Amino acid sequence: MPLTREQKSSAVDSIVDLLKSTPTIYLTNYQGLNVAQSTELRDLFRAQGVQYKVFKNTLLKRAMEEVGGYEGLFDELNGPTAVAFSVEPATPAKVMKQFSKSANTELPALKAAFVDGAVYHADALDVLAALKSKDEIIGDVIGLLLSPMTNVSSALSSAGSNILALVKAIEEKAAA
């Protein structure tokens, strides 16, 4: 049964909200997964805080046009398309790789991904899975910022012990 104009408008509005609220989207081809596999995949995504939804390509394209900036994905909007919406850029790729390995399948296949304004194509799944999360990057930056302070502190304390040893040696020599 075809959607009414109102239903289409409502669907586009909900997609627009998702696009605006998540900086990362993955377009995937899920064709070939059975119901049990699809359910397992959705559960894995949900457990990681990723929304995984199937939309009509025309409605998804209309929403992307309304938001703007997604032109690089338009060529991939053909055939069965499911969309993973995520805040963390690497999470959908990690889930997809984990699922593919455990289910012994190549599905879902990455069609393209949009991460903070950059478009990644189907061959970039490994690159996307290797991206660090924001928390990991913040931890790395804090470690780099603390590293010079730690080095200065240990240099000062070791220099202090060296001076103390030198003073003691001079004192012992003078006493002898």
- Alpha-carbon Rg, integer: 27 Å
Question: What is the overall shape?
Answer: elongated
What fraction, in percent, of the residue positions are helical? 55-70%
CATH architecture tag of the largest domain? 2-Layer Sandwich
Structural domain tally? 2
N/C terminus separation: 105 Å
**Main sheet strand line-up:** 2-3-1-4-5
Structural class per helix/strand content? alpha+beta
Number of helices: 6
Mean pLDDT: 87
Describe the main β-sheet briefly. Answer: 5 strands, antiparallel
Task: Report the top-level CATH class of the largest domain.
Answer: Alpha Beta
Total strands: 5
The CATH superfamily of the largest domain turns out to be Ribosomal protein L10, N-terminal RNA-binding domain
What is the H/E order?
A: HEHEHEHEEHH
**CATH third-tier fold name of the largest domain:** Alpha-Beta Plaits
Layout: helices, strands, pairs:
Elements: H1 5-21, E1 24-29, H2 35-47, E2 51-54, H3 57-67, E3 82-86, H4 91-103, E4 109-115, E5 118-121, H5 125-129, H6 134-175
Structure summary:
The protein is of the alpha+beta class and 176 residues long. It is built from six helices and five strands, in the order H-E-H-E-H-E-H-E-E-H-H. It folds into two domains: 5-131, Alpha-Beta Plaits (2-Layer Sandwich); 132-176.
Description:
- The protein has a five-stranded antiparallel beta sheet with strand order 2-3-1-4-5.
- The longest helix is centred in the last third of the chain and has 42 residues, at 134-175.
- The chain has six helices and five strands, in the order αβαβαβαββαα.
- It is an alpha+beta fold and 176 residues long.
- It is elongated.
- The protein has helices at residues 5-21, 35-47, 57-67, 91-103, 125-129, 134-175; strands spanning 24-29, 51-54, 82-86, 109-115, 118-121.
- Helix 1 packs across helix 3 and helix 2 (35-47) packs antiparallel against helix 4.
